[in-house]
């Protein structure tokens, strides 16, 4: 940690046990999403793009996937269904599901109710 007390941020835990603060506000949804994914998967935000997936992100294993879900739910104040959680395996799919929750779309992107 950087020694600063930042109660407004959400703590993103890394495998090594250190924590970083992810600011819940500021920037577009995509910028905030990239910030969370960057912290969870130990990547630069600029490395995250429409091709990012479980197949090509080094630290995207089952543990980091759960951390990602937890952080996204906390930062964006949403709750994902189990079906959504299982389908969130690419950056575009995560963005689509998150948009559903934030924008209140009529049909769920995971096919659920």
In short:
With 113 residues, the chain is mainly α.
Architecture overview:
The chain is mainly α and 113 residues long. The protein has one domain: ACP-like (Non-ribosomal Peptide Synthetase Peptidyl Carrier Protein, Chain A), CATH 1.10.1200. The protein has four helices and two strands. A two-stranded antiparallel sheet has the order 1-2. A hairpin with a 5-residue loop joins strand 1 and strand 2. Helix 1 (29-40) runs antiparallel to helix 2 (62-76).
Portion in strands:
5-15%
CATH superfamily: ACP-like
Strand order of the largest sheet: 1-2
List low-pLDDT spans: 1-23
- Summarize the biggest pleated sheet: 2 strands, antiparallel
> Which second-level CATH architecture applies?
Orthogonal Bundle
CATH fold type: Non-ribosomal Peptide Synthetase Peptidyl Carrier Protein, Chain A
Please give a handful of descriptors for the protein shown.
Non-ribosomal Peptide Synthetase Peptidyl Carrier Protein, Chain A, disordered N terminus, 113 residues, 2 strands, mainly alpha
Topology:
Elements: E1 10-13, E2 19-22, H1 29-40, H2 62-76, H3 82-87, H4 91-103
Antiparallel strand pairs: 1-2
Helix pairs in contact: 1-2
């Amino acid at each position: 940690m950087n020694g600063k007390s930042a109660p407004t941020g959400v703590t993103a835990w890394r495998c090594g046990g250190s924590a970083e603060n992810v600011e819940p506000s500021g920037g577009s949804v995509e910028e905030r999403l990239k910030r969370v994914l960057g912290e969870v998967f130990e990547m630069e935000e600029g490395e995250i793009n429409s091709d990012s997936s479980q197949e090509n992100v080094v630290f995207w294993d089952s543990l980091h996937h759960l951390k990602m879900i937890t952080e996204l739910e906390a930062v964006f104040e949403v709750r994902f269904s189990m079906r959504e959680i299982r389908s969130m395996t690419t950056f575009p799919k995560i963005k689509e599901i998150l948009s559903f929750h934030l924008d209140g779309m009529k049909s769920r992107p995971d096919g659920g109710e």
